[in-house]
Each structure stands twice: as structure tokens, then as C-alpha cells.
Amino acid sequence: MLSGSIEEEASALQTAIKQGVFSSSTLQRFSAMDVGNESGSLNLGGTKGLNPAVKTAQEFYTRRGISNPVVIVLRMERQENSQQFNPDNGAELTPPRQFNLMFKTYVGPVESEENVAYLRPETAQAIFAQFKTVLEVSRQKVPFGIAQIGKAFRNEINPRNFTFRSREFEQMELEFFIRPDEAVEAIAARVASAAEIGNRKSEIGNSDWGWEAWHKYWVEQRIDWYESIGLPRASLEEYWQKKEELAHYARATVDILYKFPFGTQELEGIAARSDFDLSQHQHFSGKTMGVFDDELKAAWMKLDEAKQKELWQRYHDARLKYLTQTGVPSEEAATQAREDAGGLAQGNYVPHVIEPSAGVDRLILALICHAYSEDQAPDEKGKLETRVVMRFHPRIAPVKAAVFPLLKNRPELVQKARQVRDLLRPHLTVFYDEAGAIGRRYRRQDEAGTPFGVTIDFDTLGEKGPELKDTVTLRERDSMKQERVKIGDLLPLLLEKVR
Fold first, then answer.
1. What's the rounded mean pLDDT across residues 372-397?
2. Within 13 Å, how many C-alpha atoms sit on residue 306's CB side?
3. CA proximity to 394, closest of 498, 322, 256
4. Between helices 305-325 and 181-188, what is the axis angle to 10°?
5. For 159-217, what is each residue's pLDDT tens digit?
């Protein structure tokens, strides 16, 4: 314990702190304070002689960049099996408080408990809530998927890292519904392993695919999609979550990461979520989320009794595990699991889900980071200058083509350029620019990421011969190469390059 004049010095801090960490240079007036030595004497030279709690705190703050940290101890007492202190640094924790990670609001003009509503923390809820409606109206059969993109809102405790932890963000999710493995085995007499699907990954109707095969399929499909919009595989990483990192309902989760200039960060997670989501909606809404599979019913009747019993037992055990984990009383869970397993024999089951879920904002940031480039290019006088280029893949470039008349003070060039613009505009996003030197206009479009520039010049008008009449100069952004193209061939050529 502190004593004498040291206690008097410490009392000046007690209204503001219980424990504090300062650099030794800030402790001029507290130079005689106890910093945790068993003897009560000051020790700023190291950790020798310090009690373990103070040593732990000093090491913690040293690792976080505070040089020569000094822990001011206002009292010392032994604590065992306490949750009142941070185990990493020994700091006293504040009393626990309830955090609400969803934004609360009221539907209607009256603020009352019956009008309470919450902004959605992800886009998937509506997909699950409307699953049966979509199934019936669209006349789909499992396997099939429902995709959605939109705003999500999370009341983050500590928003930070730009778009990576914000309270409002754009999210795109796909819920792909599949048969449980027991149904797959009953129909196909086997369940294909993930290693087997390499040569069949484009065949979406494989009846022997279980959840592992479908999960691998969607991991590959999502990486292929990122490549198709300009993020090469070398810029991406796959992180397969360890068993202890998985959510309680997940069988497997793969995070797709992008190597940003400031570090590798997650773009998307692809989770095998079993039948948890639909089962939860079914449990709390009281409405069935199961489907009837006529193929399963027909196949089940052809199984021998031993196989029926095996598949019944496996499905029963899986459902019982889910029901028990979600807090259903054991007797009720056992009854419900038997009913669900009996339903399997009649062709009924709750579909399982593979869920790719991606953040749109962070994807846009990845595309911008990957596209940004600087190189050297000659100006109008042939002098090299730095050129800033956004090398967006044409498929995702905001503007696909820019149209330029060589000179804006020649009406015949302007008229022809506008005709070309109007030809392209119904099919492509086109930008028309007639202001400034043609080289500067090229540079402006390079900075905007426009992949193609179309210039209407005097050759287009046929002034240098009829062989070049009604042709334009097509410039490619990245290589800056130019070629003559007939106006009649321009649209199909650009559509092919963009797609």
C-alpha cells in the first residue's frame, strides 16, 4: 500500500483515474510514488523486483509503443478468479453494460414498445423470411439460390478502419439452398467429396454433391468472379477458418482476402451454415420452412431397410444436436428430432445453405487500389510526363468509352462525333468531351479509368481519301495503341472488348 506523502500525492489523481499509464518523463511531481515494488520504493529502471501485476502491465504497454511505461498503483490487494480486471494488462474493468448492436427505431408516429423496429444488420433476413414465397412463386427446386444487395446497418461499438468497420455499408449476399447430405445419399447412393468436383464445377445440377462439394464450388466461383472484374488470383488469399474460429452453426467458412497496400483485409466470407437459418425462422415464426422433394421420396422407397435406418439415424442426430444447442428442452428436442427424421422418409427436409457474403464498399476500395497506376507517357511536345491511370477492367469501368471530335470549332467534326456518341449511348456508358487539346482529353479519361477513346478526325470525313472515310481512331487506355475502325464495326467491337 502507498503511505505518507505518497498517498497525499495519489489522492490528487483519484478523482480522474483508478489506474494510469504514463511515460516516465511525465512523472516529475510523482517521482516518489510507488510503482508497484514490493518494497514501496521507486523503480523506473526495469521490471526487476516488481510484483507480477505491475510487470504484466508494463510489458503490455511497452508492446503497444509506450516507451518506459510507469504504472501508478493506488492500492494493492490480491485478486484470484476475478473478472473485474483485464487479464492482458491487469487494468480494472468498468461494470458490464448492455450493448445493442442493432439500430433501434419506431415504425409510426408514436414511440411505444409495440412500434419498436430495428434496421437490418445484414441483407439475408428477408431472403430467409420470404424463402417459401420465392420457392412457390418461382417454381424452383433445390438446389437454387436467392441473391440480394442493399444497405445494412450495425451499431458498431468502435467504428474505424475506413470502410472496414462502419455503421452503414452496402452488402451483397447469396443464399444457396441445398439438400442435406442424407437426402443426397438416398438419391445418388453416395455423397461426392470436395476433391472430386474439380472437373465438374460448372455443372450445377450434380445430384451427388453434398455440402462440402457445394461449398468448394462457391469458393471457386467467387474467386473466378473476382478475377473476371480485374482482381487477379495472385492478389487474393483464401483463409479457411479453424474449427475453434467457426460460428456455432457453421460447418466451414472461407474468407476471401485482398492484399491492400496497407495490409491484407477480408472482402468476403463463404460459409456452410447447415440448416440453422431456416430452422431458426421456422422455430420462432411457427411456420414450416421445409420443402418436399419428390426425388427423395421415390429414392427412399427403393432403399433397403438397413440404409433407411442409417440415414434416418444420421438425420435424427443432426436435428437433435441443432435443437439442443438452440435451447429446446431435451424431451421436446427428442420428439421434434424424431418427427423431422420421419419427414425425411416422406421426402421432406429443411434445406441447408451455402452463403457467400461480400462487402461492396470494401470491394470498390480494392478495385480502386488495384487499378491505380502511374507511368511515363509523352505529352503533345514529346516530353515524358507522369501519367495517372486507373486500369479498371472494362467490365466494371464507370465509363466504357469517350468520344472526341478532334477540333470543337469544326462543325462537321462535332456533328459526326455526336452521331457516333448517339450510336454507342444506348449500349454503353459514353462520355462526350470536346474541350481542350486531344492529348489532355485522353489524360483526363485515363485518370477516370475509361478503357477506350474514340476520336473523330479529318480522315473520318474522307478529306485524305475515300478509303478512310467513316472510320475513327480507337485508342486503348493501358497500351495507348491506336487503330482505325469503321464506324459500322465500332459498336460490336467495343461490346466484345467490354464483355
1. 88
2. 0
3. 498
4. 170
5. 777 778 788 889 999 999 999 999 999 998 888 888 877 654 445 556 889 999 999 99
Cell 467490365 -> residue: 395
In the chain the first and final C-alpha atoms are separated, in Å, by 75
Could you report the per-residue pLDDT of 356-374, keeping only the tens digit for each?
999 999 999 999 999 999 9
Q: Do residues 2 and 13 touch, judged by C-beta distance below 8 A?
A: no
Question: Taking the CA atoms of the chain, what radius of gyration do you get in angstroms?
Answer: 33
User: What angle in degrees, to the nearest 10, is found between the helix axes of 305-325 and 330-345?
Assistant: 140
361 vs 48: CA distance, rounded Å: 50
Using N-to-C axis directions, what is the helix angle for 294-301 and 330-345, rounded to 10°? 80
Q: Are 37 and 49 in contact (CB under 8 A)?
A: yes
Dihedral (CA of 340, 344, 350, 356) sign: positive
Distance between alpha carbon 173 and the CA centroid of its chain, in Å?
Answer: 9
- Residue with the three cell numbers 423496429: 117
Q: Quote the CA–CA distance of 284 and 291 in Å, as a whole number.
A: 18
- Dihedral sign for Cα 193, 195, 197, 199, please: negative
Q: Where are the alpha helices (DSSP H) in 203-245?
A: 211-228
Q: Per mean pLDDT, which range of 4-8, 158-162, 313-317, 492-496 is the poorest?
A: 4-8
Q: Which of 470, 466, 464, 465 is nearest to 420 (CA)?
A: 470
Taking a C-beta distance cutoff of 8 angstroms, is the pair 71, 30 a contact? no
Angle CA 305–308–311, to nearest 5: 150
Beta strands in 77-193 (DSSP E): 104-106, 116-118, 144-153, 168-178
Domains contained in the chain, CATH given: 5-72 (no CATH), 98-290+351-376 (3.30.930.10), 292-349 (no CATH), 379-498 (3.40.50.800)
Provide φ and ψ at 466, rounded to 5°: -70, -20
